[in-house]
């Protein structure tokens, strides 16, 4: 460029030499008129020829606007004009599009005004490496937006008068509806003639001047497109990115029109989340704010506000959770909501649909429709309630015709719950069902004919109908209604069965009366003029009356004759007997009389039961003569039994005193012989004497056990609270020596207190523990466990025994001894029964019999479980009270 500056206007030959020596391309431009359009190349150096590649004709003489791009651009003409009007060089850059060659080329240019007809254009080269150019091309072409780079075109005063595109991607050309060549070769003013009238031109100038970014929605009327444009300053120009939003804008315009014309409130709610991602609120975004719904909003405009700030009660009524569920699940929600106001309430039909990270809520005021619907529902509910609570079944039948117009069936159109219950089928299954399917036999009986007759004639009918088996009866009313029938039916089965039962009961009663051995008389009082009872009319008398009262009249009469007579006419002697006065007394007082009367002269005893009955009396007379004889015999046997019990008590006294005394003497004498005269006896004699002593001890024990057993039968003390825990501890104390000798281990859990006889309960537990200590395995210490479980009556094991209600205790005694075969589970409780010989195990065979008797005295029962060699379990079940 210094070379160019050194050119002297006077020395052109020297300038020509300098032009050739320059490293830059030099073009000398000349014009006969001082206008831009007339300039052409009059001189050029070799470097200029190489830089202006693509020229199809000689460079010398070529007009400027026919030079290769970018030297034919409008921006060069602007710079030529600027250079003509100033003495200092005009510096600028020209960009050859990177899409026309393999690399982007930037030309560093400078224009120098030689005189009013000549200009020197110096061209330097800044070349972008091919790989960077290709990468840049790929990036720009792959951008989802149109991209155009503009160079600002200025006048001599440096005022921006236009913009020239120096870079454009294909998408930008497509969106602009112009070719890339047109965009890169023509300034904006030529492509858009009304540019200066548009506000957008001045906004672009402001971006270049201020450097502040600008974004706008621009409508290009010639192309009828909407562009979303973003403009930033780049050098002495602009970088403009834009995308075609015509469809979106039209859709938004349409949406806005829809929102404005919609009778429903439509609004978008954007989710607000906390740091964990949970939705904590919604931001109220775009939507229509109809004047109709203004009275339901907290303010005139709610856009941009938080939902819970305006409606803090939403989480309480569940509406907020519904919104969250729609956003998180993506499933729409359609519901109705009631909004209470001060004087009334409003119903809204709401639809919530997920959209992005939020939801669109459509709300429509359906108050009038809802109130009408609710009113209709209330009326329908009232009607259905009346129908369903009606004691009669009600149905609407639709007449079914065949092709010939004949009635062939009826279908159930409507039905109430009572009829559904009567037919024993669900209501929903009956509606629409054919009558022939529901009641197949009605086609062949009178029911169908009656229904068809009403449908044909239009005349209502009422009748009683029953099923073929006469198990169900209905009282049916049929009324014509349009093309069908209204049928009302009442199930009178209970009434009909009661009637039949009454008839059956009458027959049964007649049979009972006729077969009864007891005289039954129904008597109605007859009064005299003074109102006093003078006689009784016999309204009913059974055949037994004839038999029982024959001895008193000594003549024959029939049952029919009795029922047509009065009491004194048939039995005149009754007037003088106490029976007549008893009959009168029952009528006057209404109190029953029950009394037995002996007739010694006739050897009879009658029992009279006199009861008030329908203003009269019911006289029941029973011949109890055989019962009286049996009673006398029973009384005699009771006397004999009492005498026998006295003898038994005397025997018990003798057994406990008189029989024990000789045994004690025999045992005492035996001891004296063994201690004082043993040397006089040989070994055999001493052995016999010891056997005698053992036999005496067994006899004494047997007598004691028999006395104990008899006391259980003849003596019963009143029950008192007895602690099973206490008496068990006492028993273990008494058996302490035996327990130590056998090295027994006895475990006892907490035992309850029950009501009973302490002495008997002590015998029960002691006998069971003694048995467990006795029947042990050789050389094995006894292992015994006592525990108790509280039960209710329904938890007791199933037995033939009928338990008392209330709380029970199950007392278990478990041992690990020799056990027994369960075949003997009943026999072991029999008196004197033993499963083992006396040489193996001592005892009298009375212990378990005592146990069973004690349990019976306490109204309980016992169960056993055992296997030989596996121990035994005795479980005693006793009531707690």
What does this structure look like?
The protein is α+β, with helices and mostly antiparallel strands and 881 residues long. Helix content is 38%, strand content 29%. It contains 30 helices and 32 strands. The strands form seven sheets. It has a five-stranded antiparallel beta sheet. Strands 7-6-10-9-8 form a five-stranded antiparallel beta sheet. A hairpin with a 5-residue loop joins strand 31 (861-866) and strand 32 (872-879). Helix 25 (660-676) runs antiparallel to helix 26 (683-714), helix 27 packs across helix 29 and helix 29 (758-774) packs antiparallel against helix 30 (847-857). The radius of gyration is 64 Å and the shape is elongated. Mean pLDDT is 81; it is low at 1-10 and 98-102.
Question: How is the topology of this model organized?
Answer:
Blueprint (H helix, E strand, L loop, with lengths): L1 H4 L6 H10 L3 E6 L9 E5 L1 H6 L22 H11 L5 E7 L8 E11 L2 E10 L2 H13 L3 E9 L5 E9 L1 H7 L3 H6 L2 H4 L7 H12 L3 E7 L4 E10 L2 E8 L1 H16 L3 E9 L5 E9 L19 H4 L3 H4 L1 H11 L3 E8 L4 E10 L3 E8 L1 H22 L4 E9 L5 E9 L1 H7 L3 H4 L4 H4 L7 H12 L3 E6 L6 E9 L2 E8 L1 H23 L3 E9 L5 E9 L1 H11 L5 H4 L4 H4 L7 H12 L3 E7 L4 E10 L2 E8 L1 H33 L2 H17 L6 H32 L5 E4 H11 L1 H7 L2 E4 L4 E4 L1 H17 L8 E10 L14 E9 L31 H11 L3 E6 L5 E8 L2
Parallel strand pairs: 27-29
Antiparallel strand pairs: 1-2, 1-5, 3-4, 4-5, 6-7, 6-10, 8-9, 9-10, 11-12, 11-15, 13-14, 14-15, 16-17, 16-20, 18-19, 19-20, 21-22, 21-25, 23-24, 24-25, 26-28, 29-30, 30-32, 31-32
Helix pairs in contact: 25-26, 26-30, 27-29, 29-30
């Amino acid at each position: 460029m210094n070379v160019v500056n050194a050119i002297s206007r006077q020395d052109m030959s020297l300038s020509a030499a300098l032009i050739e020596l320059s490293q830059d391309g030099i073009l000398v431009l000349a014009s006969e008129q001082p206008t831009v359009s007339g300039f052409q190349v009059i001189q050029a150096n070799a470097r200029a020829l190489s830089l202006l590649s693509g020229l199809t004709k000689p460079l010398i003489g070529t007009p400027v606007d026919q030079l290769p791009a970018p030297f034919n651009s409008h921006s060069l003409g602007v710079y030529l004009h600027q250079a003509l009007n100033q003495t200092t060089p005009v510096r600028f850059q020209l960009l050859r599009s990177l899409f026309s060659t393999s690399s982007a080329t930037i030309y560093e240019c400078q224009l120098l005004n030689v005189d009013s007809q000549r200009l020197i254009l110096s061209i330097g080269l800044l070349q972008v490496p091919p790989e960077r150019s290709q990468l840049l091309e790929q990036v720009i072409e792959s951008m989802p937006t149109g991209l155009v780079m503009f160079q600002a075109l200025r006048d001599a005063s440096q005022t921006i008068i236009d913009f020239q595109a120096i870079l454009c991607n294909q998408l930008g050309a497509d969106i602009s509806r112009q070719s890339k060549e047109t965009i890169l070769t023509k300034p904006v003013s030529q492509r858009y003639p009304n540019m200066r009238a548009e506000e957008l031109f001045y906004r672009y100038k402001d971006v270049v001047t201020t450097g502040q970014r600008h974004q706008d929605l621009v409508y290009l009327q010639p192309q009828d497109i909407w562009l979303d444009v973003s403009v930033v300053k780049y050098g002495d120009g602009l970088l403009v990115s834009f995308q075609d939003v015509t469809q979106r804008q039209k859709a938004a315009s349409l949406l806005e029109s829809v929102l404005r014309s919609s009778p429903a409130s439509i609004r978008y709610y954007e989710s607000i989340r906390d740091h964990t991602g949970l939705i904590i609120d919604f931001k109220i975004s775009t939507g229509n704010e109809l004047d109709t719904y203004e009275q339901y909003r907290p303010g005139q405009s709610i856009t941009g506000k938080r939902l819970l700030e305006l409606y803090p009660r939403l989480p309480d009524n569940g509406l907020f959770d519904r919104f969250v569920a729609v956003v998180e699940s993506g499933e729409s929600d359609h519901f109705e909501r009631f909004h209470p106001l001060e004087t009334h309430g409003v119903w809204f039909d709401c639809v919530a649909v997920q959209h992005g990270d939020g939801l669109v809520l459509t709300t429509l005021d359906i108050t009038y429709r809802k109130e009408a619907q609710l009113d209709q529902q209330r009326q329908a509910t009232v009607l259905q309630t009346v129908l369903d609570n009606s004691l009669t079944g009600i149905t609407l039948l639709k007449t079914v015709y065949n092709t010939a117009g004949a009635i062939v069936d009826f279908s159930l159109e409507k039905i109430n719950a009572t009829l559904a219950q009567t037919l024993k089928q669900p209501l929903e299954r009956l509606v629409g069902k054919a009558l022939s399917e529901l009641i197949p036999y009605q086609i062949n009986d009178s029911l169908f004919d009656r229904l068809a007759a009403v449908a044909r004639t239009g005349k209502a009918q009422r009748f009683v109908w029953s099923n073929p088996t006469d198990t169900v009866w209905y009282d049916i009313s049929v009324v014509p209604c349009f093309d069908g029938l209204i049928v009302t039916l009442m199930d009178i089965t209970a009434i009909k069965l009661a009637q039949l039962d009454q008839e059956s009961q009458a027959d049964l009663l007649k049979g009972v009366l006729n077969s009864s051995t007891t005289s039954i008389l129904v008597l109605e009082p007859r009064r005299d003029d003074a109102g006093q009872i003078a006689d009784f009319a016999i309204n009913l008398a059974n055949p037994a009356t004839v038999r029982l009262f024959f001895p008193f009249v000594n003549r024959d009469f029939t049952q029919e004759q009795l029922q047509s007579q009065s009491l004194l006419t048939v039995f005149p002697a009754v007037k003088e007997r106490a029976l007549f006065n008893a009959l009168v007394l029952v009528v006057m007082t209404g109190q029953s009389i029950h009394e037995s009367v002996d007739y010694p002269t006739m050897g009879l005893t009658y029992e009279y039961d006199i009861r008030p009955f329908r203003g009269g009396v019911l006289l029941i007379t029973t011949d109890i003569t055989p019962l009286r004889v049996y009673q006398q015999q029973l009384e005699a046997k009771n006397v004999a039994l009492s005498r026998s019990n006295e003898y038994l008590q005397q025997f018990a006294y003798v057994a406990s005193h008189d029989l024990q005394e000789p045994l004690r003497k025999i045992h005492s004498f035996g001891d004296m012989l063994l201690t004082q005269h043993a040397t006089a006896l040989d070994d055999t004699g001493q052995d016999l004497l010891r056997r005698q002593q053992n036999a005496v001890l067994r006899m004494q024990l047997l007598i004691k056990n028999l006395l104990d057993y008899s006391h259980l039968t003849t003596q019963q003390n009143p029950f008192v609270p007895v602690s099973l825990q206490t008496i068990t501890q006492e028993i273990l104390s008494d058996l302490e020596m035996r327990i130590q000798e056998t090295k027994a281990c006895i475990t006892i859990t907490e035992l309850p207190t029950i009501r009973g006889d302490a002495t008997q309960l002590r015998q029960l537990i002691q006998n069971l523990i003694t048995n467990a200590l006795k029947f042990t395995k050789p050389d094995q210490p006894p292992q015994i466990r006592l525990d108790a479980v509280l039960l209710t009556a329904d938890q007791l094991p199933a037995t033939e025994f009928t338990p008392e209600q209330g709380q029970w205790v199950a007392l278990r005694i478990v041992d690990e001894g020799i056990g027994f075969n369960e075949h003997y589970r009943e026999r072991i409780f029999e008196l004197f029964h033993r499963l083992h010989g006396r040489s193996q195990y001592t005892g009298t065979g009375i212990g378990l019999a005592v146990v069973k008797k004690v349990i019976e005295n306490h109204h309980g029962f016992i169960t056993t479980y055992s296997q030989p060699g596996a121990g035994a379990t005795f479980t005693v079940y006793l009531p707690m009270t």
